[in-house]
Amino acid sequence: MGPTGLLVYISVLLAFFSATQAYNVTRLLGQYPEFGLLNQYINDSGLAGEINRRGTVTILAVDNSTLSSISGRSKDSIKAIVSTHVILDYYDEKKLMNIKNDSTTLTTLFQSSGIANDNQGHILAYNAGGGHFYFGSAVKGASLNAQFVKTVVTQPYNISVLQVSQPIIPPGIDAQSPWPAPGARTAFPPKKHDGSSDTPAAESPSNDDDSAAADAPSDDVASSPSPSSAPATAPGPADKSAAADEDSGSDSSSSSSLTRVKMGLVGTVMALASLLVAL
Ligand SMILES: *[C@@H]1O[C@H](CO)[C@@H](O)[C@H](O)[C@H]1NC(C)=O
Ligand SMILES: *[C@@H]1O[C@H](CO)[C@@H](O)[C@H](O)[C@H]1NC(C)=O
Ligand SMILES: *[C@@H]1O[C@H](CO)[C@@H](O)[C@H](O)[C@H]1NC(C)=O
Ligand SMILES: *[C@@H]1O[C@H](CO)[C@@H](O)[C@H](O)[C@H]1NC(C)=O
Ligand SMILES: *[C@@H]1O[C@H](CO)[C@@H](O)[C@H](O)[C@H]1NC(C)=O
Fold it and tell me: Which ligand neighbours the alpha carbon of 65 most closely?
């Protein structure tokens, strides 16, 4: 292959990769030093590649000073928390304002780990009106105390980064099984149905949130719309609802990655056509 052929070959590769990766989350967050710790956690936990592959995400970003409150936790716990901050859908302020019936359940990257119990892999978004939004774990009894601060950056409809006031920590994650080894994610881990507790008291919503939540909706207000509007919290076989949500989550993401693969193929075909012209 001559130098021209090599150049064309390289441009084929470039066309393919630029079409398949919509963004690089590490590079994107790297432009905002105040989220450096979050970026470090995303990279160090190996979540960056998965976030990039998703193609359509919203990251609820917590700044250095606030996120440092979780720095003493285990690696698995930090990974679970960080992945709870990655919504598998695109949300900007406009779309948050369209949330009907005040609150809506969103699937996060933690759900796709296969180790999230109950509603740990989901969060609720609450539209309080007037541009005020609150987020919190969808686990029953958790409070919606992560308040929307501002839009950091949006690249519609690939990735959106929204700053929130504090980390969302799903109750019970410290009792979680370890994360499966990369590539080993095939089935849900066995779950106990003998009533043994998945949610130790250690992580129950604590009172130290009360001061921060002074101007946030009270737990009553925040959680009252959710039981009716969030079917996933309805009593029922936890495994089934979790599995169903996982399915729907991966359906939409696999369709978006399918789109990207198609676009990659189009890029490749076009590059091959230019190769023929060049020869
Ligand atoms: C979103 O990603 C696609 C490729 O997957 C790209 O063509 C498009 O320009 C991206 N949009 C933005 C706003 O970056
Ligand atoms: C994403 O960006 C980071 C920082 O610029 C870089 O180190 C990494 O290689 C990039 N990843 C991909 C898949 O391009
Ligand atoms: C945030 O934390 C990261 C990692 O610890 C650090 O590299 C960065 O400089 C910090 N940014 C600010 C604004 O303090
Ligand atoms: C990302 O993590 C890898 C190890 O997993 C490390 O070698 C690399 O320096 C990290 N990059 C950044 C930008 O933190
Ligand atoms: C709002 O909730 C009520 C009762 O759950 C339901 O009947 C109605 O269809 C919902 N409206 C929208 C727009 O989702």
Answer: 3
